[in-house]
Each structure stands twice: as C-alpha cells, then as structure tokens.
Amino acid sequence: MLARAFLAVLTAVFSAIAGAQGPITPQELPATVRQALAQAGVAEANSAFAVVPLDGGALRVALRDAVPMNPASTMKLLTTYAALATLGPDFRWRTEMFAGRAPVAGRIDGDLFVRGSGDPGLVIERWWLLIQQLRALGIKEIRGDLVLDRSLYAAADESTTTLDGNELRPYNVAPDALLINFKTLSLEFLPDAAAGIARIRATPALEGVRLPQQVPLGAGGCGDWKAQLKADFSQPHAPRFHGSYPRACGAGVWHVSLLSPDEYALASFRALWHASGAVLRGGVRRGQVPNGALALAALDSPPLAQVIRDINKNSNNVMARQLFLTLGLEPENGTLAATPAQNEAALADGVEEAQAARAGLVPAAAQRASTAHSIRFVKGWLQQTGLAMPELVLQNGSGLSRQERISAGSMARLLVHAWNSAEMPDFVASLPIAGVDGTMKKRNGAAHSAYIKTGYLAEVRAVAGYVFAASGHRYAVVALINDPNAAGAQAAHDALLQWVWEQG
Fold first, then answer.
1. Which residues, 6 or more positions from 191, have their beta carbon under 8 angstroms from its beta carbon?
2. How much is the pTM?
3. Which residues contact 56 (CB under 8 A, 6 or more apart)?
4. Is 494 exposed, middle or buried (0-12, 13-18, 19+ CB in 10 A)?
5. Which residue has the higher pLDDT, 434 or 341?
6. Residues 111-132: tens digit of each pLDDT
7. Ranges of H-type helices in 174-231
8. Mind listing the domains of the chain with CATH numbers?
9. Residue pair 52/416 in contact by the 8 Å Cβ criterion
10. How far is CA 50 from the centre of its chain?
11. Span 273-278, average pLDDT
C-alpha cells in the first residue's frame, strides 16, 4: 500500500512538473519563437511549422502545415532528393568533342563540335581539362568553327527572364546544356595603398574582353562598394569603372555575367586553346553533332552526390535548375514501344519515360529536356513513392521563383522519407551545418547539431532539414514564412532550431 501511494505521489509530482513546462501540442509554438515573430512584425498566420520525430522523440509540431507556401530555396531539397533517388549518387554528365573528319598532321580541316549534356559544374578548370585532351592528341590547329551543340535543352528553357531584372548576376544565368563556368567572370579588386589604386584581376581569362587594370582607391567606409565603382557594363567586352574602390574594403570580388553563352564559350575556349600554343581559325555558331562524327574527347562530371553538396550547401540556383532539367530528359518522338497506342501508354508516366531515355533506350539526338517534362517526372515520382503533394507547384526546381509552392507538412514528409532511404547519408551530407558551413555558417540555432537548407527571397524566409537534439533524438524540422517582414524573422527560425535541440 505504501509503495503504491508513494508511486501515485511521484507520478503526480512529475505530472505537475510537466504541466509547468507546458505540454507541446500541434497548435503551439515555443514562446521564444512567438516572441521573435512578434519582434519582426510577422503575423503568425503568415508562417507554417512542422516538427516530426524520426526515432520516437517527444516533440511534434504541426502548425498551418497544410497551407501551400513559397519555400524559396528549400525547394532544392525536393529536386536533389528526387535526383538521388532516381539517378543514383554516382550519376554523371558527359561533355564531348567531335570532328567531322579525322585530324591530319595535327590539324582539323573543319569544325570542332562540342556537345553538352547539362553538366551543372563544368567550371573553367574542367573546361581546360577537356581542351587539354585535344592537345594530347597532337591537335594544334582548327580551321573551322567552334560548333556548340546545346540541343539537349528545349529552346524555351534558355529564357533569361529574372525575378529582379538583373541579368548580370550569376544566380540569374539561364539553363544551358553546355554551361561553361556558370558564364561568369570574377573581378578581384586588390588594394595597393602605397600606389593609391586597387588592381583588377579577372578570372578566367576571356579572349577579346578588355578590362581596365586598376581603379583609384576612395576614402570612407566600405558600404555598397559595388555602387561606388560606378560600373559601366554597356559594352560587355570592354567594361569601365568611373568611380573608385573604397580603401576600407580590403580585397573584394565581384562576380558578373556579361557575355552571351556563345560569346563566353568562344572567349574562354580561345583563351585556353591559344595559351596551349594552338590556333582556332573560325568563329562560333550553334549546331548539332552530325551523324558519323569522330569522337575526340570526353569529360565526365563529378558524381551526383558531390554535385548536390554544391547545390545545397551554397544554394546554387543555376546548378539546381540544370539538375531539375536533367530529371526531365525524355524521348521527343516516343520510340519506346512499337505502336502509337503503346507509345502513348509508355509515355503517360513521366518517371518511366525519363528513366528509359537516361537508360539509352532512345538515341541521344531524340532526347529533349524541358521544365514541363521535369515537373511531370517529379510529380510522377512523388506519386509512386507515396509522397503525392496535391498542393505542389513547381516552376524550375530551384526555389528562385514567385510561383513555386509546397506545404510545410509535405516538405516534412519528404524529409522523413529521405531519412529512411538508402540515399540518406549523401542527402544529409549535402545540407549546410548550423554554425559550420554553407548558408548556415553564421547561424547559431542548434549550432553544430542542425543540418538545414535555407531559403531567401524578398518576403520569404525558410528553413528545412534535420536537428540532432541534445537528448540523442532526431527530428525533421520545417519552418516557412511568407510575409512582408520576413527578412527580419531569421531569429524566429533560429529559436525554433534551438528549442528542438534543447527540448527534443
């Protein structure tokens, strides 16, 4: 009797303690999060939250988690996980070079064809490696043109329409089946206090682009140093700076996209080709690799598992859009079955058609990638995996969009599915770690214990990923804000991550 009475008292005491802490229900947020939202002037009705235990933890939050919201760059989680699950972590893109006829005495008496497959990371160093393969064959002269085969992408997906109207910003570069170095020129400004100037160094070298070698140093604080330079990019091959570079800034880098895709390909090829002691006689044009062309060189990309780290940790919009288009590769003419009826049935589901195309069941020349194909593929894959999201709106798969929508609940279900999948190690490793790297490097909520993809747009702030709580439990966490004051609400998301770490 005494033991039973003591147990009853003990239970009552623990219940009282739990009541004092406040039970967490699906309709409640911790006080720290509510306070941060209030201080930012964000209406709770313009936010959504989902916290889901992955291994029996006690916390669970589902607040407006069924409401479709703009997720900004957290949409990259859907694109990258779908890619891992369907393409596999070792999937690679290939860039190839061809000649219409065999080289003679180190000379190509015609055009050099370069065919792209949408490699998201064909940076200048890898472009150089591909060119060096030609030189290793003893080729030192090309008498025709550089012909760029970008035919893998539908023309409509090369649109340069941007959210902010600034086409010079590298994150606004349009998708390109032969995207070289993100079509970007990096301008370094290196102050020389003794000389009173900042020297300008451009990377990579682009033949035909003439830059001033220096600008004067200016006084005052750093501030908006790009505006102080008073750049004139109206002549892309001959930029000018009419202002000064603030002395207080130290070294700075400005990444710009000045040239068209064809101009950039030619300028970068010429610079690398000529630096190796070889000659290109012709110019540049677009075309397709002719049947029977002679393969000369090929370069495979790093594996997908590595590519998605670049995408998620640095929130690279261009790479995400390239990857999204890869998901939509499909046959143009429906050659998967023998009859029109069979073709229609075989092509009805985006998953099968894209997988068949990537498996080589149709000739490469008959494949096209488009956002419409990718949208159909991703939705078909979600349906197949039991993750159907009726509210989902996709545009380009990167989150750099005013149209894309997903609910916090659907994003959380995606995270749970990924956690329980064979792709989990590569997927989690691709996410920024709070307080450590990527877009979470300067964030302190659940520092070192949260693997979180961030999302930023005007009037949008988002986080989604995993928190490894102090208790040892693991949680999927999603928080979306669509509000005019969203820019000031980062503290609310940090407070949520910290709360999950402490209380979970």
1. 197, 198, 217, 245, 247, 249, 250, 251
2. 0.86
3. 473
4. buried
5. 434
6. 999 999 999 999 999 999 999 9
7. 225-229
8. 26-92+302-329+369-504 (3.40.710.10), 94-159+261-300 (3.50.80.20), 185-256 (no CATH)
9. yes
10. 24
11. 97
